[in-house]
Amino acid sequence: MDDDSVQILEEEPALRVRSDSEEIEYEERKQRRRKIRRAARRAKGYPSFLTLLTMNYNAGDQDTQENVLDPYLIPSTVKIEPVISSQANQIEQPKRLRIDVNAKLGLKEGVAIKVDDSIMIDVHPDAIPSALASHRDEGWYEGVISMAMPDDSFYLSPLQTWTRRQFEFFSATVEDASLLQAGRRAVTVGRVGIRCIHCKAARRSVRDPWPIGAMSYPTNLSSLHTSCTQKPTLHFEQNCKYMSNDARQELAFIQLQSELSSKRFKTAIPVPLYYIIAAKRIGLTDTDDGLRFERDLSLGPLPLETIRQQHQILQHTTGVDDNDGLESSTTAAPAKVVSSSAATAAKITADEASERVLAQAIADLDKSNLCTAEQKVLVTDFMFLTVRQMKICNALPSDVTSRGKRAKSVHVGLAGYSCRHCADTMEYFRSYPSAADNMVSSIMNSFWSHLQKCRYMPQATKRALSEYKRLHTRQLVQLPYGSQRKFMQDLWERIRAEDKTEEEMAPIIASLPLEQGLLSPPTSTTNARLTAPIATASKIVKESNYPTVDDQETQTVLRSAESDWDPAMNDCLIRPEDRSLVSDYVFLAMRQLKAVGPNNPTRSQLYGLSCIHCHDRECQVSPSGRSYPSAPDNYASALNSSYYNHFLNCTYLPTDVKQALVATRKIHSVQCASLQFGSQRKYFNRLFERLQAFSSINTVAECQKVDDFSAHGFIDVSTKQQPCWICQTCSGIPIAFRVPGSVWFQTPDPLAMQHHRKRCHSLKWDFSHAGNLLRESIEGRCDTTKLFDGPLRKLLLSLFGDDTSLVDTLTKGLESFIVNGNGLADPPHAVRKPWPAKLNLSTVQAAFKVFADEIQWTGSRHLADQQKFGAFIKYLGPYFEIPSNGRCEERMEVDNAELMDNDFGLNSEEYDNNEGAADDDEQNEQFIEEASDEDMVQSEMSQDFNDDQSEMML
Question: Which residues contact 312 (CB under 8 A, 6 or more apart)?
């Protein structure tokens, strides 16, 4: 049979008839589908999960219409938004929330499918229960709970326990989120904060402002301890007005007990760690938006040991040891030390130039450095860059002897650290910390102070350190707790590994030029030195037991100081018979000082000491080089501290003398030990008696007659309101360029007037102060050779109204001072015009911009940031003012003398216009006839005087 003849018969399927029970079930499903379709139409898409849960599917439906379109299908999936885990990193994809649908909701079999950023759950509508679900199943919990815990007293101090009782955790409501505060980020609904229970109970309205420190929103769990520690001082002591008297008395009693008790409170758990554990016990957790409640507050707190073990496991996985890395014996890799708060916070950085310096410091690390690149994550940028400027050194005999009583823990060969820039110079810095806990204090105080003054450190590194010092506190908050202490412990161990014995230091000490006799004990040969009338340097060298400086330049300076005993140099403060009583340093230092009268004779009549090099030159260094010791015992400390620091920074002190002072001070303690006991105190008693004699002879209260000052070239132009003495010789020179001491108010100093008379000149201008200001303002910011080619002259022309004669005088005088070191210049006779009236801020800024462009200024272009340059402009223009903000700097202090000129009728034109400005006595008329009217023309000034400044030397 052929295949084509075969016919396949297909039987039609039989129609299945529903039973009665199936028909009823079918009708019920139709009713449920109609309900779901209505919910879908109202929601314009997928209905929410809460809507499906709350819908009653088993109730009867009165809607019997069958006109529902077939394309509407039952939504078999419900979209749940993703939940971001608090432990996830910002750069990683957020973790998904796992939902056990069957166990949570009691549904039938369902499959959870992960699609993109959401979870699609297969839902069977006929199996959804009708019970009402809470909104907490979809998000965070909310509520209010006290911060205090039953275990606080076992792990916290009484003050910390009391503070926690006064605060509570709360979730921000819509009203709290609407209260925006200046300088703070917006608060989202549900974020957890802390607030004072007293202020919260007393607030009548949500809009009432919170007192200072009453409410805050910590960013993470690690900041809870810091926030609560500041509350007693920040809020309760001053700003909490609603705290009861009983609570205030309890706080005062606890604080008093804490001050009286010297015992330090220690517990098994560090206080910052306990704050974190206590917060986790009630369900607090870190999120990108602050703290949140992840646990129902109606439940009791979790066990402390359970949370502590979980925290230890978390810290172990992130690379931090137990107890914040302070007590564990194992050391984790520094590169893995990352906390939850530091992982989510953006790193605070400085400007681009500072970042380049820091990157270069990390790249140039070598074996001689005290830190490695892997340790960078343990400390702030400031601390890392500061440690980068160190190098290891070992204590020498001079380091032991120069410390006196502080040398108990310092011995020869002890390892410490020094500045790597000036380690081989005479101005070196060395430090020998006694413990690892003192490292931070030593670096932040003494070493940082040295780096600011170190002349050998690059300016770019100094600016970077200053910038990172400003960010140090903010970066310190982002570090893991205990990381800086771990860094200092490693630094301490590296320093201790470099300790050397005396045998190892012997060849190093033998090569030193100052080694011989440094540790020699006092001998009987020192008595012979006391009998000699003058112990010169040549005689001292012959004594083998007396330590000396093995430096020819220092010996030359000492011999020169011993050969020149001119009493006019330092007013006989040290005499030939005193040479054998003091060390070389005291002798050389006293030769650089002179007697000086008190600044305010009405308060003190005792004379003091001042540097002879910058006494009349307005040297702006700190310390000022002037001191008034009140007792003989104070002279030694003044010479070793303030005067020595002044000598190092004085710009007028010769370089060879400065180096000799540094060299002799290194062996000062050893020489004092070689002197006869009490000899140096004997000299200081003599010095005190000599200064008292100066005070009794030159008492300013007795010098009130005009005849007493006429011999010095001064004339009395006093009025009934204010006494004043003005030098007649230099009255024709502008006040800003006179030799200091030309004008005196109230009680003058005769000794200072004599010094002014010696330097005073009728025609020459003194550019020393203006030249120093210009030199300091342009140092390191431009090429000095291009300064006088035209930019400075154009700047002065723009400021002083194109007065060519005056500008030529200023330019030539400044150039002569900076190039040749000569501060005096003869002005042309054509300079007879008055000084410029005013310098407006806009005029100065415009002139400075052109000036900065021409000389290629490398500093800031804002005048407010250039204080030294602004001081230079202010000195040239006495009427500098800033009228933009309503505040005006009318004059600098030196211009008070011009104020006296105007007020006392020194200008004949103003004297005619202002009646009663000066008395018509014979002395004023004689002075007006002698002085040139055009030379004394000055602008109008106010008559405001500062009574406290009773005496001013210009």
Answer: 322
C-alpha distances (whole Å) from 578 to each of 542, 546, 563, 671 are: 20, 17, 14, 15
The more confidently predicted of residues 899 and 366 is 366
Question: Is residue 876 within 8 Å of 737, Cβ to Cβ?
Answer: no
What CA–CA distance (Å, rounded) separates 675 from 661? 19
Mean pLDDT of 762-772: 77
In 261-290, where does DSSP find H-type helix? 271-281
Size (the chain), residues: 954
DSSP structure class, residue 394: E
Tens of pLDDT along 647-659? 888 888 888 999 9
Question: Which strands, in side-by-side order, build the sheet including 593-596?
Answer: 593-596, 608-611, 626-627
Contacts of 110 (CB under 8 A, 6+ apart): 101, 102, 121, 122, 123, 124
pTM: 0.29
Query: Given the structure tokens 């030769």, which residue do they identify?
Result: 591
- Do 587 and 559 meet the contact criterion of CB atoms below 8 Å apart? no
Q: Choose between 318 and 135: higher pLDDT.
A: 318
List alpha helices for 760-907, DSSP H: 768-778, 791-799, 804-820, 841-854, 867-876, 896-903
CA 691 to chain centre: 41
Mapping DSSP to helix (H, G, I), strand (E, B) and coil, where does residue 417 land?
strand
| Residue 321 near residue 332 (C-beta atoms within 8 A) | yes
Average pLDDT, integer, range 599-620: 68
What mean pLDDT comes out for the span 390-409?
Answer: 74
Please work out, in degrees rounded to the nearest 5, the angle formed at the alpha carbon of residue 460 by the alpha carbons of 457 and 462: 55
Using a 10 angstrom Cβ sphere, with 0-12 exposed, 13-18 middle and 19 or more buried, the burial of residue 66 is exposed
Query: Which SS3 state, helix, strand or coil, does residue 596 take?
Result: strand
Cα–Cα distance measured from residue 909 to residue 895, given in angstroms and rounded to the nearest whole number: 20
Report which secondary-structure segment, H or E, holds 586: helix 584-590
Q: How far apart are CA 750 and CA 710, in angstroms?
A: 11
H helices present in 603-650, as ranges: 634-640, 642-649
Residue 196, helix vs strand vs coil: strand
End-to-end alpha carbon distance in the chain: 140
Decide if 584 contacts 549 (C-beta within 8 A): yes
Q: What is the CA radius of gyration of the chain?
A: 42
Strand-pairing partners, residue 146, are 168
